[in-house]
Amino acid sequence: MTSDVNNALEMPVSYLPSTNGYVRGAPTNAALKALSPVTGATVRRLGFYVAGDGGAADYTLSSSPCTLNSGLGDDGAQAQAQGGGCWNISAGSESLSPPIWGAVGDGTTNDTAAVQAAIDGASCTLGVPLTFDARHLYNITSSLTMNCPGGLVGPYRYGIWAVNQPTGNNLGVDTIAATLTAAATVGLSNATPNYFVSGSTTINTINGAWQGRRVRFVAAAAGTLNLGTSGNICAGAISGGNTVDLAWMPGGACWSHVP
Fold first, then answer.
1. What is the pTM of this model?
2. Ordered strands of the 137-139 beta sheet
3. What's the CA gap between 64 and 151, in Å, rounded?
């Protein structure tokens, strides 16, 4: 399947400032892995395959082996260094994009493995959202899986379909709604973004909160949803209707209303 991200919002990616000064710029991922600077040095990788291809990122050298793939790294969040050390990406809390992991995004190259690595690296290793921008069209030939709670961001109309857990904004994915009985505390399934809510008990706490998660509650019968603020629901999320969209935004402390 080919995912159409032409309608995505292009989001800039920034990186933490270096505390050690840049040793030099490495034009490619292969060049980065061939460097042998001192431990703690920070290097700007200018691209993955060639400089300027979207794979630019800052990396800091650790003397410890990479923790991913038996020390080999994933060539995105981590890259194996000369001498057995590891180049660790300095991503901070910013969104990253698949080209960091070697995805090409030209609509022809098979990017399945690279996008899966990007999903795993962003959500499992770094705990940050993965951004799909307007410049890249990824050719995906098999199902992708979100192995950790995380978010895929960018308001694309037809986007990457990651199975097992919902995408960060659930757009482009048609999911059958689950049923949920209203209670003071309710828990959400990892795989379901939409819920028919029965009962009139006020919901104050929603378990299953993680960065990038978005859910929709729909009253199963005529009436309104009752949401309270004594738990982890933001005051602005209260709605007087029978449908409410909520999101747990990156860095947030409560479920927010999504207009």
1. 0.56
2. 2-3, 137-139, 106-110
3. 29
Identify which of 55, 36, 125 has the alpha carbon closest to the alpha carbon of residue 44.
55
| Contact yes or no for 122/129 (Cβ under 8 A) | yes
What's the DSSP call for residue 226?
A: -
DSSP H or E run through 117: helix 112-120
Q: What confidence tens digit (pLDDT) does each residue in 85-110 have?
A: 999 998 664 568 999 999 998 878 88
Helix (H) or strand (E) holding 58: strand 57-62
User: For the range 141-144, what are the long-range contacts, defined as Cβ-Cβ under 8 Å and sequence gap of 24 or more?
Assistant: 141/1, 141/110, 141/112, 142/112, 144/112, 144/115, 144/116, 144/119
Sign of CA dihedral 72, 73, 74, 75: negative
